[in-house]
Amino acid sequence: MTRHILLINGPNLNLLGRREPHIYGSTTLADVEAQAHAQAASLDISLETFQSNHEGAIVDRIQEAAGWGLTAKSLDAPSSAESDGGEQSKNNSNRPDRVSAIVINPGALTHTSVAVRDALLGVNIPFVELHVSNVYAREPWRKHSYFSDKAVAIICGMGAYGYTAAIEFAARHMKLEEVD
Fold it and tell me: Is the entire prediction scored with pTM above 0.85?
């Protein structure tokens, strides 16, 4: 049995390192994921990463994290972008039915998605909300989050290092359940 963390990245985070580097930095999502996998291995944690620009795909993956909604297609999904929507999921072949914790950077869905919020609340898996930029130092509408009041922790404004902090927190400070 091992502890398992799911790292979810929402819309436009596939553009990290290219999109507005003065705000989001020059570290790519591939760099973030590689570092996260190395960190998880050093902490004896299983880590899966998932990115989608589609709200419904994120809702589906959150439900799958609880062992619900699993389909043959989702279990056999390729580790690179799928042809039907660009979702990326890594390490699917060894994926457990349920994860211990979720680290989520919802991107723009932070300010709009009741559906993702409801999915997170519905699965009852503890989660950390993560943002690369300091959303409180940006446009006024970015200060509202549909997730912050339910997150175990919120990390923002630390750039790509925020991912390291979020995984460290999830691995060491959250009560993670063991999964098969």
Answer: no
